[in-house]
Design goal:
Layout: H1 25-29, E1 59-66, E2 72-82, E3 85-103, E4 109-128, E5 131-144, E6 147-163, E7 166-181, E8 193-200, E9 207-213, H2 234-239, E10 242-248, E11 254-261, H3 262-268, E12 279-287, E13 290-300, E14 303-313, H4 317-320
Antiparallel strand pairs: 1-2, 1-14, 2-3, 3-4, 4-5, 5-6, 6-7, 7-8, 8-9, 9-10, 10-11, 11-12, 12-13, 13-14
């Protein structure tokens, strides 16, 4: 009777939510987002294009994430130079939602249809002393059966290196709008966001800490929570905007990673227990020139999601073989 006053769930007000999915194992282990890691890791280009100034040309990256309900997420990236212009990268993030039954109004099965999203990235970085500026142009396409829509967006980002062990990062992401809409749904807005983060390693500790603040322009981060176990204090609301992560740097060839996402925990935990919701972990193993990463993020008592990544450099394959 009151359709304009009732909500079934948080969200649904912005389109192209696949832009908010984690695209690499390292960020997944560090609670879902990391924009200040500029240490030559090409996978971080999806988070912040300014890190490309530290990425060697001809780097390659592949990633797979078996998400929920048979959804599969794939990512890949390649870094390159154009003549005398350095620090470019191409990327692809593809979300396969699988097959669904097509039915008529009576429920009779008429066949199947599929749904998918993909985002194409073109990134560039430019160094100015201790500052590095970066930008990514993104073409976004979303398709459900015969209906599709597309959008064009870009990210503006920066990295500031205080010293070799301390970096600051900022990103203005998903600036743009919709290009085409082949459905009857009204035009949707992109999930614009502003992020600020820092990564630092104490000089005599084998641990790198990462803090990333997200949703800096969203005043209403979530709807009012009335249950007694879900705090709405100012401190709690502040923690929901911060992703915490740590990397234990045991050697150049082996690392352990841990993360905590307070917003995920508060929104997905049960009334009586959290069952690990909000926590994540992972590892990095490097064999010769190939780097392998595996991460696991717990979302709910029902389970979590795994992330698997491989990366190397095409110039090193002769040495590998």
């Amino acid at each position: 009777m009151l359709p304009y006053l009732l909500y079934a769930q948080i969200g649904g007000q912005l389109g192209y939510q696949s832009l908010n999915l984690t695209t690499n194992s390292r960020s997944a282990a560090l609670s879902g987002s990391s924009i200040s890691l500029a240490d030559g890791d090409i996978s971080q280009f999806f988070e912040n294009p300014a890190v490309l100034d530290s990425v060697a040309s001809r780097g390659i990256f592949f990633h797979i994430n078996p998400y929920f309900s048979d959804v599969l997420i794939y990512s890949m990236a390649y870094s390159f130079d154009i003549k005398d212009i350095n620090d470019f990268a191409l990327g692809l993030n593809y979300v396969d939602y699988g097959s669904f039954e097509r039915t008529d109004e009576t429920g009779m099965i008429l066949g199947t249809f599929s749904a998918s999203d993909y985002v194409l990235y073109l990134g560039k970085a430019h160094q100015l002393g201790p500052f590095t500026l970066g930008a990514s142009l993104k073409f976004i396409n979303s398709k459900v059966d015969t209906y599709s829509s597309s959008a064009l967006a870009f990210d503006l980002a920066g990295i500031f290196r205080i010293n070799k062990n301390w970096t600051l990062g900022t990103v203005f992401e998903n600036i743009g709008g919709q290009l085409t809409n082949n459905s009857e749904i009204n035009s949707t807005s992109l999930p614009f966001d502003v992020k600020i983060g820092t990564s630092f390693k104490p000089e005599y500790m084998p641990i790198r800490f990462t803090f990333t603040s997200i949703n800096l322009i969203d005043q209403n981060l979530s709807l009012n929570e009335t249950t007694s176990v879900k705090s709405t204090s100012a401190f709690d609301k502040m923690l929901k905007r911060i992703h915490l992560g740590a990397e234990v740097l045991l050697s150049k060839h082996f690392q352990l990673l841990f993360g905590y996402n307070h917003k995920r925990k508060q929104e997905l935990k049960l009334e009586t227990r959290s069952e690990g919701a909000g926590f994540s972990y992972g590892l990095m193993v490097k064999v010769k020139r190939i780097q392998f990463r595996f991460s696991r993020a717990t979302y709910h008592a029902a389970g979590g999601s795994s992330f698997i990544s491989l990366q190397s450099n095409l110039r090193d394959f002769k040495q590998i073989l």
